[in-house]
User: What shape does this take?
Amino acid sequence: MASINDIRAAFPYFSQGPGATGYVYLDNAATTQKPFAVLEAMNQFYIHSCANIHRGVHRLSQSASIAFEDARGTTAQYFGVNNPQQIIFTSGATESINLLAQGLAKSHLKPGDSIMLSVLEHHANFLPWQEWAHAHQGTLKTLPLTSDFEIHWPELESHFKSGIALLSITAVSNTLGIRLPLEQIINMAKRYGVPVCIDAAQLAAHQYMNLDTLQPDFLVCSAHKLYGPTGTGILYLAPSWLNSLPISKTGGGAISKVSWEKTEYVDGALRYEAGTPNIAGVLGFAAALKKLQQWDLATCEKHEQQCLNYLEQQLIQIPEIIVYAQGKPKIGSLSFNVKGHHAFDVGSFLDRYQIAVRTGHHCTQPLMTHLNVSGTIRVSVGIYTSQDDINAFINALKKTLVHLLKYHA
Amino acid sequence: MPETPELIAETIVQEFSEFGDDWTLKYEFLMEQAIHLEPFPDTYRLDAFLIPGCQSQVWLAVERTENRYHFFADSDALITKGMIALLLRVVQDQTAAAISATSFDYITKIGFHNQLSPTRANGLRSMIQRIKQTVV
Ligand SMILES: Cc1ncc(COP(=O)(O)O)c(C=O)c1O
Assistant: This one.
């Protein structure tokens, strides 16, 4: 178990980066800062064992290949997956969903099928399915949620009964921080044979997941939201989909035999990883996951939770503030607005007061329409966020309000 | 007849120089500019007058009288609206030739150069482009 100070000491952001001069980073849902260990792992690769993988007999290629497959093992273990082959490395959650959508379009999805998504989806888990639906006369259905973002179970069940080809949902809203009850949803979906894809881009950064127990059909996430480098992510395939999900990207590395007439592809993760992967990125990702295990993400999660609860308590005492999904448990993120003022103005002032938050639609425009707002201000915490950071934010917000409330929008 | 764009820009730089490095005063001044911007006619509040690429909504419309151009603008964000107000002060009721030749370097001089970066969400660049486009 590590203290917040130990964790902060492991991130150059606080000693050498903007944090050293007091700039408070509360945009962790967009991306996280990187620990020294991640930078070192990537540097080590480029300095000492830079070579392409799964290609050569020379020692550099071999040690790089071993390191890459070790990283796959680390990642599988982190996600509670016994067979590392079920972990496919991609460039990130967005690429994972696109690969999946194109793969499913070749076999599983039939013209006119219905795909169900929630109103909470990030555009990354919305647009690939919308594209498919437009091209194949498909229908996009919305996961039935009450006004309080609870699942309407009878309605969901009747959707399942009437036939849904795929349910693709986010585990945690990147805008509101609320979590969907994955376990129950997957259980019900399994009863009706509906495959489920989980967008864990947000959840994976805050909570351990055990995929062998949860048993989704597919899961995606990005390394950069998990303290790893940009340009790396995973697509998890359940055992029944591994090798049977059609490939949608082909090229070097993925084959066992190529002739003019016909190509045979290898089995396992490599089948889906054509081309030279982001080797340094994958090694950096594994280094990040090891650090998270060393620090114990479950302990970090409790601490993050305290920060978010404290933040919400502070915010609801300010009369001009509207907190979205107020009172509901949140993971990682919280969204709010200042009555009568644009999120952009609030964010601009906060930046001047040394606070980084995200303002706008957070790539969740359907949710913005649902909430009837043009944007929100989102505060998102990470494992290094301290109560002092939250206090600094609240102070900056109060100063911002003094400026803004002189003017009515 | 308005002063030349150069003279107005100089006045703006002068006004801002009084705030020194105090960005709070600069921002408040921007919001003052926003509050005093001529009301935006409802007839122009249409998608056709929205400038794409801004995080906040920005409308810009223009009316031509003889050879001079009169601009109307609005935004739902005050800081953005203040920035447009600063742009419009310089080009308001000028001729096409004067507007085309206008340099917006004064934005950098008053310390808002970061607002001009291509990725900046307030779309200041798009606004300048739109102003220049409307008069060619
Ligand atoms: C819930 C969710 N899904 C998907 C993504 C897309 O991730 P990436 O841009 O790393 O591919 C994000 C990133 O913001 C996200 O928050």
Q: What stands out?
A: Residues A 92-94, 122, 124-125, 170, 174, 199, 201-202, 222, 224 surround pyridoxal-5'-phosphate (CB under 6 Å). DSSP finds 14 helices and 15 strands in chain A.
